[in-house]
Each structure stands twice: as C-alpha cells, then as structure tokens.
Design brief:
transmembrane; single chain; mainly beta
C-alpha cells in the first residue's frame, strides 16, 4: 500500500506487524475505515443487552386470520399478501391494505428482494426492498414492500399450457427460478394414448434490474421417465427420481450450451410462428433453451426420499441409505471420492413419531447440526490424525433437553404394594417430556435458537432458548405465553430484537404472536 500510493500503510500505524493478527483484526472490524465496523459493534451491543438477565421479551401484539400468515424481514403478510404489517414499530402497524383479490389473482408464492450493495440501478425504486409474487394466472409481479404498488409485471405463459407455481433462488438475491407444476395430461388424453414428455418448465431471471435469461423444459426423453421433481441451487440443476436417485448437472453450462436465442423483456419477437412482445400478454416468454442431448453428469447418489445435501469443507454430502429400514440413519461421505467419513454414520436410534433431522450449519462454518427429540448435536469435520487425506466426524458440542424430573420406570409399585409392569415404553418425543421442535440460526447476532415444548395437562408450553453458536452455552430462555398444540404446524422467527410465533389452529385458523425486547424495570413491573 505504501509503495503503490506513496503513503503510510494504515494497519502498520496501529502497531500490528503480524499478518495473521492483521487478518484476524480486519475480519473482526477493528479498522474504522471499514464501512461495516459500526454495524458490527451495534450488533455486538444488541446481543449483550438481549442476553442480560434483566432483559425480557414481551408479547406486544397478537392477531388471527382465516388464511395463512407469512413473515419476511420485519413485515407480516396476511390475506394472501393483500395486507402488510410492519413488526418493527413499538406496536405493529399496517403498511398497506389492499381490497380482497379475486381467485384469478391469488398469489401462489413470493420472494423478498433486497437491494444489492455497491451497484448502480436504473430506477430509484430499485434501491428499496420489494416483493416478487407469482399469481395463479401466471403473472410475475414486483411489488413495493412498503406500499404494495406494482413496480413491474411479466406474463410468463404463452401458447403452451404452463402453470407456474413456485419461486426459488438459484443464487440468493441475484438469479431467480420460476418453476411450473408438473405437467399431467387429462384422463381422456391418457386414455387416447397421448403421451406427455415435458414434465416441468423452468423460467430463469436475473433480478434488479429484472431481466429474462431463458426458459427450458425438463423432458422425459432427455432425463428419463421416472423424474419426480427438479430444483436449481447455486448453479446446479438437481433432478430427482422415483427410486430415490438424485442427479446433479451444471446449470450454467446447460444455459450456455443449449440457448437458441437470447431475448430481453419488452423485446418484439417472431418465434416458431408467434409474433409478440417478451413478457407481455398473451404471448408470455419464449422457450428459448432446448436441451437436445443429456448434459454431462456431475454427480449422482441414491438416497431414501431423495434426501441429499452438500456442504462442509472439504466438500461432503449427507444421504440416508435407500431402504426404509435405514430411515433415521445418515451417512456423511466425501464428495471427492464417495468415501464414508470416519464416524460418518450418524444414528440417534430414536423411538419417536417425528423423525430426527440433519443439515449443514447455515453459518458457513462447515459444521453439521443433528436434531433429535431430546438432543441436538453440533458436529464438525476434521482430519484424521496421521491421515491428512481422510476426514472424521467429531462432536463440537451438544444441547440436551431438560428432562431431569422425568422418571420412566417400566416397573412401579402402588401404595398397597402391588407391582405394576408397563407393557410399552414411552416415546422419545412423548408430549409430556421436553422435546425439541425447532432449531434455527440468527446470523446477525451469531446465536443458535431452539424451541422446546412440554405438554402440561391439556396445554403445551414452549420456550425459546438462545445458545452461543460457538460453544452451545445457554445464554437466554424466553417462555412463550400462548399454548402450543403439538398436533398443528408452527413457525418461530427470531430476528434481532423480535420474536414472532405463527401457529395453525383447528379449522384452518392461523394466529401470529409478536414479542419484542423490553427492559424489565420496576416501573414496567
């Protein structure tokens, strides 16, 4: 830096002469010229305040709805995204409320779109958060997250009968995938001997500014007859088959190799006898990526229920052997040579109604989280001693449910002295014992959150716990005031100083409970 600019090197002035220390201090944000320093310091302060014993989380607001409730970055969406409520204020307030939409305008899926840092965008509205929604009539709309105003609209389906239903990220906040429902012929057409070869359509978009990359078919003739589903993630096309097989292909290479002609939104086109405007009704989008030959296979694996995950460093994958008797058994293998890691078979041997689950830690540390009814294991990959080319799975830390008062004797003695033997043992996820239901990670505060539930009489009681992500130490426990019915679905969001619990109740009723951080002073009491 001094040689290039003729000035004095900033870090040297701080008295740091060791490269490793310099890089560590830089990662921790020690240098004031780093734009993220103030933000990191503020989050560190927030974490300390939040974990103090005197800090409480208060239930400030509850609402109910006859339709599902969704939450995205401080915004609560109700009535099929027609009503948006800000949860950031001291008491949630309505940002916008639209009139009830017709069934033909029903929203099928939605993604929150946030402005990328350090990029020049064509429109001032692009710098604010927006919501991309997919309607039942194949319209893709970009709405203002604060007002609900329609900023952009694209018609997806042309002359082909495509029912687009799902939105997902290929690259988060950069490349978006719009997927159709699986194409199925009417019964009359099947009886007439007509065969359907196209299973799915995928439309690919670059976002901010919204631009069309291409549309392609997933065809039986190319990928085989037993395809059940497809997905795209991080530049990989994932194809799943009915017999548990999972195959991976290079999605970017497919786009480049089989692109027939690029198109821009709003561009007039003459395509296969059709004349129209790209993204406008009634023409929609052209299917301009035609896969004419099977793409090169990157990787394939067989796993029960197509369960397949990649992560860790060096790269590993997690599967369950493709037999029903192995349900709940997980194999962790090297992606390089398919070698099973030492201690790579993870089996909690749970006897429970709900299966345990496993996944790579979202904090990008390469660790693995394995969750059972009463035990959470955080595992790590490390080199086998004296065998640098072999990896083993080691326990980093565990979190254990509080079952100290649980006595599960198979033989009991009554007051009269009669011996009673139980004919069965209780399940590991018995509602009367504390059981883990949700595990999540808050990336900005670097906290691991868990929700544990215990059935007490007719009511279920839950508490949200915050654990140190590095060592698993319990830092804070928050009791949820409302009853928790284990027979229905629940979602719990922990977003900085906000906790939000969305639950489904009988007869498809939904409730949303908002908790906010408050200082527990004598005046509040």
């Amino acid at each position: 830096q001094a040689a290039a600019g003729g000035g004095r090197a900033g870090p040297r002035a701080c008295g740091v002469h060791n490269v490793c220390r310099l890089l560590t201090r830089r990662a921790h944000g020690f240098y004031a010229r780093d734009a993220g320093v103030a933000h990191r310091k503020n989050l560190g302060l927030l974490r300390k305040i939040m974990c103090q014993e005197s800090t409480k989380f208060k239930n400030v607001w509850t609402t109910h709805s006859a339709s599902p409730i969704a939450y995205e970055r401080g915004r609560i969406y109700m009535d099929n995204y027609q009503c948006c409520i800000s949860s950031i204020a001291q008491e949630p307030r309505i940002l916008y409320q639209k009139s009830k939409c017709a069934k033909s305008e029903k929203i099928e899926d939605a993604l929150l779109l946030e402005c990328p840092l350090g990029e020049m965008l064509p429109n001032p509205s692009d710098y604010k958060a927006s919501l991309i929604v997919l309607t039942v009539q194949n319209w893709l709309l970009r709405l203002s997250a604060d007002s609900g105003e329609v900023l952009e609209k694209v018609y997806l389906a042309g002359s082909c009968c495509k029912f687009f239903r799902y939105l997902s990220w290929d690259t988060p906040q950069e490349v978006m995938i719009v997927k159709s429902a699986q194409n199925k012929l009417p019964a009359a057409a099947r009886q007439a001997g007509i065969q359907q070869t196209v299973l799915f359509y995928l439309a690919v978009f670059q976002v901010l500014p919204l631009s069309f990359i291409g549309m392609l078919e997933i065809n039986k003739k190319i990928f085989g007859n037993s395809v059940t589903d497809v997905a795209v993630s991080n530049g990989i096309l994932i194809v799943m088959y009915s017999m548990g097989l999972v195959r991976l292909y290079n999605f970017k290479a497919i786009l480049e190799q089989f692109m027939e002609q690029p198109f821009d939104l709003g561009q007039e086109f003459n395509w296969n006898g059709q004349v129209g405007v790209v993204g406008k009704y009634p023409f929609g989008l052209p299917c301009n990526i035609k896969i004419t030959d099977t793409p090169p296979l990157l990787f394939e694996a067989s796993s029960l229920e197509n369960a397949f995950q990649i992560g860790g460093y060096p790269w590993h994958y997690i599967i369950t052997p493709n037999k029903k008797k192995h349900k709940g058994v997980f194999h962790i293998c090297s992606l390089k040579d398919n070698a099973l890691a030492k201690n790579g078979v993870q089996d909690m041997k749970c006897c429970s109604l709900e299966p345990d689950w496993i996944y790579f830690h979202p904090d990008m540390s390469g660790r693995i989280i394995h969750v059972g009814p009463n035990l959470i294991k955080v595992l790590k990959l490390k080199e086998v001693k004296n065998h640098a080319d072999q990896m083993e799975i080691a326990e980093d830390f565990t979190i254990v449910a509080n079952r100290e008062n649980c006595v599960n004797n198979s033989v009991t003695v009554t007051a009269s002295g009669r011996v009673v033997k139980k004919r069965f043992t209780s399940l590991d996820d018995d509602p009367e014992q504390e059981t883990f239901k949700i595990v999540d990670y808050e990336d900005e505060l670097d906290l691991l959150s868990t929700v544990a539930v215990t059935q007490i009489g007719a009511d279920g009681r839950a508490h949200l716990d915050f654990h140190c992500n590095e060592h698993g130490i319990l830092l804070k426990s928050i009791p949820l005031k409302e009853s928790w019915d284990v027979t229905y679905s629940h979602e719990v969001y922990f977003d900085k100083d906000l906790v939000l619990h969305i639950e489904q109740k009988p007869n498809r009723r939904f409730s949303c409970h908002v908790y906010q951080m408050v200082c527990d002073t004598a005046r509040d009491d």
